[in-house]
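Q: Hi! First time doing this. I have a protein sequence and I read that you can turn it into a structure. Is that right? Here it is:
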Amino acid sequence: MLLIVGLATRQYWQDAQQERRQQVAHLLSRCVNAGLLSLFNLQANNWQRRPAFYRAESARLLRDTTALPSKALRGRHFPEWREAVRLCERLTLNSNTQHTTIFAPLGDFAAADLRAAHLLGSPQALSNAKHITERLYTAAEAADNYLLHLRADIRDKIATSSLSPGTQQLVESTINTEALDNYRSGNFSTTQVRAQIRRVQAYLQLLTDNPRGYTIRNGGLYFHDSQLQLRVDRLNKAIIQGQGPFMANWTQIVQYQQMAVNF
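A: Yes, that's right. Below is the predicted 3D structure, encoded as structure tokens:
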């Protein structure tokens, strides 16, 4: 009789432990998925109209993931649950950091008319314009490696957590099957993005290096040097033609694996 009671107690404890592990894994998979869905909101944004949208989206994601634990918990708090909540907070911070790295420079770039004549009359404004374009290189690199960096961060945070080995294993597999496996890298082209950045930089540098070749009249450029005007016109045309493909790249950083889903 005692043996039967002992076996039943052990089975009950094992079932309860597995239930807790599943709760932890489900919470963290929802947390990761929330970050990915936030990226899709950012991809869909019109950056000319809302250049600072990443700030509002960052705050929204933080509110949503902060509310997740109270919605997902069944029963009382337990030690691994508290560690899972802490992990969710860290994962959300990482998502918002990644998103800011990618989209803050894009918003600044979209908001600023980097070919506007008023920049050329202000050394500080011109310096800021050059800084904006330089930051886009880092943004493009982060966009191109988004899922790679996300997976590495998740693995690192789980491995260094205080979750038990069994829970860590279940968390990783659940995050993969319920979240990460549903996404793949999109068609983001660092080649196209870098080419457009270089065009804008060349335009700014050309006018910076030739201050005597033009003057600013009625908000526009008047050229004294016909060869300089020709070179500027060619760059300007290339920039205009490249702007559409450039902005389109930022809408396809990550895509759904499941083609039936229409986001």
